[in-house]
Design brief:
heterodimer; A: about 425 residues; alpha/beta; 6-stranded mixed β-sheet; 5-stranded mixed β-sheet; 17 helices; about 30% strand; globular; B: about 300 residues; mainly alpha; about 0% strand
Chain lengths: ~425, ~300
């Protein structure tokens, strides 16, 4: 949807003077001391898929706000190219557009939501939401009707005639969001939209944004300095430091495998239970800790070394057909089903749960409150790929990783043999 | 040697005596004479008519309103623009002027002020907007504005008379020149003060520079522009009195005639009338400024 290649933005009267120094690998402060130019963003490349939430995260001064302004050219990039997948014209290079065509792009395809809302104080809420439509040249009735729909969607249907100053911060940003959505632009640029809001309202807004995004299918470029926020709403996260992207990946990739010290410090305090998935922490079925104990009726029974009494019966595809504990047949249920049906607080000894590999850790933990037995992880075809017992859960929370990413020897095996 | 010492002494004690006096007086006299002899007809046939026409139209209109209705009208204007208090104050103040027997002079002065302010807005607003859009233009305007504002009005009353003759028109021209600077300055300032976050937001939605000006910048600058209008009105009022010297009528003429005849009472009645009118116009335009939508933040 959007592709950036080698985008660089240097502020100052003579940005060219800083380019060779940047190429020579000099740091931001060195360049500022030498040439007086300030490097905002340096050689940033990424690509945003249609319909995803792409989060750019970094501390203040890391260049994230500069980067997002380069995309709709509120700031003119010093070097690099930015492309946009135009619905009618195919791929268009934003960095090469004339003023007139750039305005068309901003009018119809790319809108923006701001950190401090930037609602026009002299316009009513309705006229604020309708602003983009007004610029598009839509008739009054039409734009008001559409703006009212947008206000309904963000839950402010009754506030159209109020002025922004009469609204709380959270409500103002709903208006800002409605204004950004009203033009039907396929790309929404959001510059720290929730940073100025109270924590509780912030979480509310994040959930609502996710909902609206699923409903409308917009592509969102979202800037934040809050890792939990990034993890909660991002499909991909780019972490910026000193004007460069130092790591780009899914929330889980970043949490499980931080590439630099800086990222590691960032993710240290993040809540892993909503991000890390069952597939990551599970003990793989093919590791040495499992062995085949018997075969019967076309089923192969396997058991883990540390829990030899529990036998999992797999068919030739690797799907779980039967499970026995000390010879006793166990009930098998999916995790979701178990959470729905089983009484809270009653921890069963005869229930075995299955969950898909993309289930988040938190959900698996919830499941464990219903049964004392391990959870089996399945792939997309329903084949069992691994097992999560208490040990894997604890390691997932504490270490934010599973056995596969672990360079140390497998503690499960060690404990089993001791 | 002694000659050099003598020269040094003179350099310190009387450096200006070394050269003949700079003939600035002569230059200006010549320049004004040249302008008058070459452009008098142009000024009289192209500049005077619109000013005189506007003034006469406004005066005729105001004089056509019966005083009682006028007072009710001013109450309504004060009430709508500011508050019922301002309306009541305006009503009482102008009624007082009428009771002092100078109602007709008041109406003339008001016509003069309205005409002058109208022209100030007509010329000053576009100039102010231009200043806000171009640093170069603003820098070029600044010394001109300084000259317009600080040159003692008496200095240009004489050339005004030479160009336009005696009467309301030269007085109006002098008033327009004197009262216009705040309109330009504060329009410029108001537009420049509009926070970049609003301009950025307008840009992000694809607004053209013209749309940004009229949909965002100017409305948000309105309180400041109104402050400029208020200043312009006050300056116009003060100048209208001075313009009486070259034949402008109204309350200023009362003051001037009173002084000439050493009729202190007459002079003071004119003076009080001007003060009351100034207060009324000030309160009303301030009220307008506070109600301007850009203020609602």
């Amino acid at each position: 949807m959007i592709r950036a290649e080698g985008v660089t933005k240097i502020f100052g009267p003579a940005p060219e003077t800083a380019l060779p120094l940047l190429e020579a690998g000099k740091g931001k402060s060195e360049i500022q001391a030498e040439t007086g130019q300030v490097v905002g963003v340096h050689d940033v490349s990424f690509s945003v898929e249609p319909g995803e939430v792409f989060v750019i995260m970094g501390l203040s001064g890391s260049g994230k706000s500069t980067l997002i302004r380069c995309i709709n050219r509120l700031f003119e990039p010093t070097a690099g190219h930015i492309f946009f997948q135009h619905p009618d014209e195919g791929e268009v290079e934003i960095t090469g557009l004339s003023d007139e065509r750039l305005r068309m792009l901003r009018k119809h395809h790319m809108s923006m939501v701001f950190q401090n809302f930037a609602l026009f104080p002299h316009r009513s809420v309705l006229d604020n939401v309708a602003y983009g439509l007004e610029v598009q040249g839509k008739a009054r009735d039409e734009r008001h009707r559409h703006a009212r729909e947008m206000l309904e969607m963000v839950g402010l249907g009754d506030w159209g005639n109020a002025y922004p100053s009469e609204l709380s911060g959270g409500m103002q940003q709903r208006v800002g969001l409605a204004r950004g959505l009203a033009t039907d632009a396929s790309v929404l640029l959001m510059d720290e939209p929730f940073s100025a809001l109270d924590p509780l309202i912030k979480v509310n807004m994040q959930q609502e944004l996710k909902k609206i995004q699923q409903q409308l299918g917009r592509t969102i470029l979202f800037i934040t300095h809050d890792l939990d926020e990034a993890m909660r709403i991002g499909d991909h996260i780019a972490i910026m430091e000193e004007g460069e992207i130092i790591q780009l990946g899914t929330p889980e990739e970043i949490l499980v495998n931080p590439r630099t010290e800086y990222v590691a410090r960032f993710v240290e305090h993040a809540d892993p239970t909503a991000v890390i998935t069952a597939g990551t922490i599970a003990q793989p079925l093919d590791s040495q800790t499992f062995r085949t104990v018997s075969e019967a009726d076309g089923l192969r029974f396997v058991a883990a070394d540390d829990l030899p009494a529990l036998h999992y019966g797999l068919d030739d595809q690797g799907r779980l057909q039967e499970a026995r504990l000390n010879g006793q047949r166990l009930e098998i249920r999916s995790l979701d089903e178990a959470l729905e049906r089983e009484a809270r607080g009653a921890r069963r000894e005869d229930l075995l749960m299955l969950c898909p590999h993309q289930t988040v850790l938190r959900q698996v933990l919830r499941g464990r409150t219903r049964t004392a037995l391990p959870t089996l992880v399945t792939d997309a075809e329903g084949r069992v790929t691994g097992l999560i017992d208490e040990l894997q859960l604890i390691r997932g929370i504490l270490e934010k990783r599973g056995p596969s990413a672990d360079s140390e020897s497998l503690p499960v095996a060690e404990e089993a043999s001791s | 040697m002694s000659e050099i010492l003598e020269l040094l002494r003179q350099l310190i004690t009387d450096p200006f005596g070394l050269l003949e006096a700079l003939p600035v007086r002569q230059w200006i006299t010549d320049a004004v004479n040249w302008v008058v002899s070459n452009f008098r007809d142009f000024f009289r046939s192209y500049l005077s008519p619109p000013v005189r026409g506007a003034m006469e139209l406004i005066q005729t209109a105001l004089e056509a309103i019966p005083p009682g209705l006028f007072l009710v009208g001013i109450f309504l204007i004060g009430w709508r623009a500011a508050s019922w208090r301002v309306g009541l104050f305006s009503f009482i103040a102008l009624a007082l002027v009428g009771f002092m027997g100078v109602w007709n002079a008041l109406v003339v002065t008001l016509s003069l002020v309205i005409t002058a302010v109208l022209f100030c807005m007509l010329i000053g607003l576009p100039l102010g907007i231009l200043c806000s859009r171009s640093d170069r233009f603003a820098n070029a305007m600044r010394p001109i504005l300084d000259i317009m504002q600080t040159t003692p009005p008496f200095v240009y009353l004489v050339p005004a008379v030479m160009l336009f003759g005696i009467g309301n028109v030269p007085g109006l021209i002098a008033t327009i020149i004197f009262a216009m600077p705040p309109m330009i300055r504060l329009t410029n300032l108001g537009i420049r003060q509009v926070s970049t976050e609003y301009i950025e937001a307008a840009e992000a939605f694809g607004s053209t520079p013209r749309q940004i000006l009229w949909k965002v910048q100017f409305p948000l600058a309105l309180p400041t522009v109104m402050a400029g209008l208020n200043q312009t009105i006050m300056l116009a009022l003060s100048m209208v009195v001075i313009a009486a010297i070259i034949g402008a009528g109204g309350l200023g003429l009362e003051v001037y005639a009173g002084l000439e005849r050493l009729n202190i009472g007459q002079a003071f009645v004119g003076g009080i009338g001007i003060v009351l009118l100034a207060m009324v116009l000030d309160r009303i335009t301030q009220g307008l400024g506070e109600k301007a939508p850009g203020k609602s933040k």
